[in-house]
Amino acid sequence: MNQTARIISIYAADTSGVCSALFEFGGMTVIHDASGCNSTYTTHDEPRWYDMDSMMYISGLTESDAVMGNDEKFIDDLSTAAQELRPEYIAICASPMPAMIGIDMDAIAYEVENRTGIPAFDVKTNGMQSYITGAGNAFRTLSERFTGTSGEMRSSVDSTADVPKSDTAEIAGKRVNILGMTPLDFPLGTDKEMKRWLEKNGFTVNACIGMGTSLDEVRRLDRADVSLVVSSAGRPLAESLQQRYGIPFIVGVPYGKCFAAFLAEELRRAADKKHKLSENSVDEKAASADVGSNVAEKYRSFDSRIAVVGESVLATSLAAAISICTGHGTRVLETVGDGDMSQLSDKDISCDDEERLEEELKASEIVIADPLFQPICRSQRFIRLPHDAFSGRCYKSEEINMIDTDIPFFNTLKEFR
Question: Among 37, 281, 398, 402, whose CB has the most other CB atoms within 10 angstroms?
């Protein structure tokens, strides 16, 4: 039976992706689901839950309410909680049961907003997709609601308000949005490493969406000259910003010093092109989206003997870093199933079926993957690279920083023959 896992784990679901994406923006996120499931969305899939407060709730959907279509109870509970807590916004999403019986989540959000005066919206989920779909939809929906608005706490809509007074014009031409940064894909603290790398290369971080962020950063997303998409979850938002504001985007993660340097050059090129474009030209805006969007492909070489397993953007970026820093080619096995497939070469594969993945891995001598993949790797040399979206908290102590640094296991790969 396809897409059945008997040995390995599965990735976090789309509902968990919504919770992770919206964790830091000051809103109230509510999953329409049965009582008792909140620990899955928070403590198991969200490491920030232990150190940071966030308004994450479930509706406590009962069987009788689902069968009888008692949406009024959900609306009343939402409205009462929102009036007490006064969040920046209210985001709701569906678990499998509401999705299957066709509850009109958009109508519920509309009614709640009318009653409370607080912005409310539905993020499309069904509990059957991965965290990438949920987080991607959440980022895009949040931006479509708030990007370009001034907000009550902003004293000015001047696009240079947050830029240092000196060299404002030059810095404004190099403002970067970091898109798709969540702890499901990156260890906590990676946002700080990413910002340091960008600043070292002469950029100013306009917004970091997903981690180390705020709703004000969403409001000013349109002020950037380029977006850096660091995971598949950031791609829908990048495409939306390109379509609405003509902001080009580059896809990649600055793993290793060598690939990080190439990625910085691609960002500069994209930012310079955006700076020269006429804001009123639709054709030029569309063309700006194509500037170096698949950076990893330019620097990769192929060799089936080394397999990088996981989410497409992270895996292809690591594969490019391996090719540049060690001279060895790799093959990427994308295993989430709904990631950014445009990052894969024609020699890579997307494979979310355990049986087929086990067969594909037999061709490799070295496998780089989350430790929970190791049971289906029989005789290969295995390099453990924890991924929170797959193994949760199990291997937190093994996580390493790979942003613009010498990656420890690269020395081992250099000796591979």
Answer: 402
Instruction: Give the SS3 label for residue 175.
Output: strand
Give the residue carrying structure tokens 């490491």.
Answer: 47
Encode pLDDT of 51-103 as tens digits. 899 999 999 888 888 878 889 999 999 999 999 999 999 999 999 989 888 89
281 CB-near residues (< 8 Å, 6+ apart): none
From CA 226, how far away is CA 244, in angstroms rounded?
Answer: 13
Contact of 218 with 149, CB cutoff 8 Å? no
Which tens digits make up the pLDDT trace of 167-180?
A: 343 444 489 999 99
Residue 310 buriedness (CB in 10 A; 0-12 / 13-18 / 19+): buried
Show the tokens assigned to 351: 């494979």
* Bridge partners for 176 per DSSP: 205, 226
Of the candidates 354, 357, 356, 331, the residue with the CA atom closest to the CA atom of residue 344: 331
Cα four-point dihedral sign 145, 311, 197, 192: positive
> b/e for 65-78, b at 16 or more Cβ within 10 A?
bbeeeebeebbeeb
Q: How many CB atoms lie within 10 A of CB 84?
A: 8
From residue 19, give the alpha-carbon distance in Å to each of 136, 137, 399.
11, 11, 22
* Per-residue tokens: 72: 């009024």
Two tokens, residue 23: 């964790």
Backbone angles phi, psi at 388, to 5 degrees: -55, -35
- H or E element, residue 147: none
- The tokens for 229 are 């998409």
Contact 344, 312 (CB under 8 A): yes
- Structure token pair of residue 281: 């030209």
- Best CA proximity match to 250, nearest among 211, 297, 214, 204: 297
Q: CB–CB of 54/48 below 8 Å?
A: yes
CB atoms < 10 A from the CB of 232, how many?
28
Q: Quick one: the chain helix, strand, coil %, rounded to 5?
A: 45, 15, 40
144: phi then psi, degrees, rounded to nearest 5 = -65, -25
- Which amino acid, one-letter code, is at 102? G
140 is written with which tokens?
Answer: 């895009």
